[in-house]
Amino acid sequence: xxxxxxxxxxxxxxxxxxxxxxxxxxxxxxxxxxxxxxxxxxxxxxxxxxxxxxxxxxxxxxxxxxxxxxxxxxxxxxxxxxxxxxxxxxxxxxxxxxxxxxxxxxxxxxxxxxxxxxxxxxxxxxxxxxxxxxxxxxxxxxxxxxxxxxxxxxxxxxxxxxxxxxxxxxxxxxxxxxxxxxxxxxxxxxxxxxxxxxxxxxxxxxxxxxxxxxxxxxxxxxxxxxxxxxxxxxxxxxxxxxxxxxxxxxxxxxxxxxxxxxxxxxxxxxxxxxxxxxxxxxxxxxxxxxxxxxxxxxxxxxx
Length: 303
Known about the structure:
Blueprint: E1 6-8, E2 11-13, E3 17-19, H1 28-36, E4 42-47, E5 59-62, E6 65-68, H2 77-95, E7 99-104, H3 107-113, E8 123-127, H4 136-148, E9 153-157, H5 164-173, E10 178-181, E11 185-188, E12 207-210, H6 215-226, E13 233-236, H7 242-251, E14 255-258, H8 260-265, H9 269-283
Parallel strand pairs: 3-14, 4-7, 7-8, 8-9, 9-10, 10-13, 13-14
Antiparallel strand pairs: 1-2, 5-6, 6-12, 11-12
Helix pairs in contact: 1-2, 3-4, 6-7, 7-9
């Protein structure tokens, strides 16, 4: 079978499929489930300096995707530092895979959290949330993490209101070790036609779109980033099967993250997608995942 292992900044992923930060890894037990479900590296839900005031209801399936008002972890950072990260760390060590921990959001907040993560995390993922064209908050977040965390720092980018090539270059110039693209898209809105009520709680019932509907948007972002900077890219957005992940790798990603499919189908999905990737590589005569990385950039787009 084709070799699915991936090397990113000295970290060995047993395969390229990992959880995205969300309800699928909302605590240590769910991270354990993801590890047992075959993920290539473990990843924990985003924490910030306070617990998130998550509105209810906060998730709804829509045709072609999923909308949510999910925020960061509803548990305070003290809970993660006292118990949850130890559970995540033990599961990752048992499987021999890295643990990536997600932090948000501002430079000031990340400066408080990052020094405490050296005990637990092999790498950090920074959620800089829904920024516009001003890269300053992202740069401040990267700088805060790099000053006190000893491992690789990846920055997660939203597709909203940003020119991805410029944002990627700004992230590289600020010292990011990799880019995660993308976050969910929005704001969006949905109604229950039986009652006329919004599907989601919170501000105006607005939410953020994820799932299959945003995959072409996320693949384009990965493609643009890969054409601009020579940093590892982790693609995320609408991946639910092996061929989806293959598409992201061809666009230039080194690995992929999965959230919505895990919420809908369970944490076995990571290993299932990885097996499908292996089957696809075997069927097409490739010996390893690295042979198809960035393949799309070798073709001229016809006019």
